[in-house]
Amino acid sequence: MSSRITVPDFIKYKERGEKIAMLTAYDATFARLLDQVCIDAVLVGDSLGMVIQGKENTLGVTLEDIIYHTTHVGRHLKRALLISDMPFMSYQASSEEALKNAGRLLKEAGAQAVKLEGGEEVCESIYRMVKAGIPVMGHLGLTPQSYHQFGGFKAQGKTESAQKKLMSDAVALEEAGCFSIVFESIPFELAKTATQKLHIPTIGIGAGPYCDGQVLVIYDLLGLDARFNPKFLKKYAQGESIICESVGQYVREVKEKKFPTEEHSF
After folding, report:
1. What is the number of domains present in the chain?
2. Tens digit of pLDDT for each residue in 24-35?
3. Is the pTM of this model over 0.70?
4. Which of 23, 35, 61, 202 has the fewest other C-beta atoms within 10 Å?
């Protein structure tokens, strides 16, 4: 097993042109498996609200939810950088509250960094976190916590004014101290320009091939929901059909008294 990846390693990856591979995880089993294949970073995302809790969006996820899942992921994650999402309203009210909650994610949950959404409006909070020794990853473009403001999950940065705003926000996040920025669902030309301009690495999801790294939700990558087929997603397995076929066979064998046999007995 390689040595633990740290925040400074992200900068080194960008400097030498090595892509960063990042995925979400929410439990110890997936953390152990992702470490086996040498993933660079694991995000305990507020996407757990949708893929774990079955909610329509991420807004209902609490800080306690993130702490709970981060703790379990951290138990078996030995190599990858562990990053925790700051959920909705855990940082928006004030920079003091943002600092306190980010500190909880490191102190109580064992995260090595936090991620939060937003541009210039969150820079004061980011500056205070970084000054306190808390690494921060930014998130621009389609920011899921702005679900209602955007009118759903819609691609961003399509107009000239929106592109200028995103570039301004990206520079502001870097200046505030972010060690990396996620770009979600923005035009690839915009992501490419921003990636070239910034000194910190960019992580794309639906932002094209020119970011310094990529992130996906592990459940999406494995194809655990056959109904979910956004343009940005490549499914590396048809997990839903594999699981349904396997469990279906189990049900049939139990019903037909084929399992268990004496071979499976003590």
Report:
1. 2
2. 999 999 999 999
3. yes
4. 35
